[in-house]
Structure to design on (616 residues):
């Protein structure tokens, strides 16, 4: 199975309103609720791709109870670790006419040292059956900034490859612990390396410790700097739609390609097609399977002449 | 005891952010949660004034569970009726620097006819021990627009005086059922009667059925049209602060004055002082007891020469 870690899970609430006008009162026309946090989304896409997936991280309080109720009927297995604090909410306020979204993100519960220790024990047990592990998203308050670095080291000790998808200092520390793959977007890569030139920045990230780096460049596709070479992968044409979850689909496709032992060009083609099929799907975070099949053979993967 | 009815209870969530900017992402710095719905607030103020108070209405789902947990340690007794649907949330987004607030209000759960029948049975039982009843706030989906009218009639049959504090069509229908007291604000009164002239509109509302009408005129105080006369009551000077809950304090003071059998000028003086002391309190919906005592003798109550 593939394990995904979401230390700061969330209940994602969507409010549809006519138009958000600051300092006025709004009646919410539609309320949506879904399980949130990058690793949970990645696990759902993995399950849709036919991979057994297990989600872990923290869950607590009444919001956590709702989160578990929403996860229960889904394919990923719930191996979340209970905590005293309450799981956070995120609220996305969507303007009905334009689809423009205003995001409000709670910080999350404070995790105690005892709870972190309990998580590490659960993580070690889960690693025994894991073919790969994805470490996803922000850290809740109370978790030390080197947490992902610690999880990368423990996975390597257990012989399980790791994919790291986070930002800021947790990304910097995590990369130094030498994960198998880091998947920053262009902004995260620039903050990490100081370079806005993706190829230079991806190589720099590899020198900092990541075995391979796949940078998502938005509509332009992906850039991969790996021990086997450097590739650019791009969709046949820019796709219009809701980009929510596109990054999580990239992570899921890369993990699936890793455990299936696919060559890099095939992994990247799948990741680009799945990402585009996610943007095209009407529901945020879902992907359109027909669009995926149609796009897959049309993704262009170009090897860069320069050696890594 | 004094009974307050809140058919559309809420979990009031407050998010403090730097400044709300539509179509961007915000980190929420502080999260507050409190029991919401006008009748719940009125009952808390009544308890603070030394009156035994009981809250009823509907509660359900995981949000309802949180609401009951928040009510449990407070003085008002919880006599809420469980339903299948989930209690709504309201989200107030407060800009940290200015205090400006953007409000997002969920509509609330759909109440079934069976649940409404169960509520009516509980209401009849509660009326037996009630000295007065306040009917407060909006109606959740599924509740017929004449619901407050029905509750007014049942209270009268039980010999319990009623105060009605709602708006729109439920107010219009409720007033026609002849409540002892209606407390619209100036906007609600204008929508009901078509007149923006408060004295004319308050008299019109009496002709429509309300035994007495107390209109809240914001910083200018209150206007009361009653069988005993017409009064204006005003604070000694305009007060600056957070007006959230000021209207609920007016309702609480009027109910307390009613069950204590105070003359109208005394009821109005208390209502104005309590409202101003609520605006002055740092926490939304609370009142400052020292400010209340200080303001009470300084409220001016003027009888209008015109007969009702």
């Amino acid at each position: 199975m593939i394990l995904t870690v979401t230390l700061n899970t969330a209940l994602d609430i969507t409010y549809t309103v006519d138009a958000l006008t600051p300092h006025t009162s709004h009646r919410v026309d539609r309320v949506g609720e879904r399980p949130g946090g990058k690793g949970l989304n990645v696990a759902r896409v993995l399950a849709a791709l036919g991979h057994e997936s297990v989600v872990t991280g923290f869950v607590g309080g009444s919001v956590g109870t709702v989160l578990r109720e929403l996860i229960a009927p889904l394919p990923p297995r719930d191996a979340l670790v209970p905590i005293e604090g309450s799981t956070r909410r995120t609220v996305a306020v969507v303007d009905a006419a334009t689809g423009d979204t205003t995001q409000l993100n709670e910080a999350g519960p404070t995790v105690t040292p005892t709870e972190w220790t309990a998580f590490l024990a659960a993580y070690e047990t889960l690693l025994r059956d894991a073919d790969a592990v994805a470490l996803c998203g922000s850290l809740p308050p109370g978790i030390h900034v080197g947490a992902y670095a610690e999880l990368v080291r423990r996975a390597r000790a257990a012989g399980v490859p790791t994919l790291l998808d986070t930002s800021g200092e947790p990304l910097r520390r995590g990369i130094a612990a030498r994960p198998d793959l880091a998947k920053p977007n262009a902004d995260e890569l620039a903050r990490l390396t100081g370079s806005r030139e993706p190829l230079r920045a991806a190589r720099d990230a590899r020198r900092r410790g990541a075995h391979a780096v796949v940078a998502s460049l938005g509509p332009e596709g992906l850039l991969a700097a790996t021990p086997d070479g450097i590739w650019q992968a791009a969709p046949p044409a820019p796709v219009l739609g809701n980009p929510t979850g596109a990054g999580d689909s990239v992570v899921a496709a890369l993990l699936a390609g890793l455990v299936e032992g696919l060559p890099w060009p095939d992994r990247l083609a799948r990741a680009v097609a799945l990402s585009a099929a996610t943007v095209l799907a009407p529901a945020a975070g879902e992907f359109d399977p027909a669009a995926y099949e149609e796009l897959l053979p049309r993704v262009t993967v170009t090897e860069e002449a320069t050696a890594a």
Summary: Chain B has a mean pLDDT of 95. The first helix of chain B runs from residue 38 to 48. The two ends of chain B are 31 Å apart (CA to CA). Chain B has one domain: 2-7+38-68+78-83+110-303.
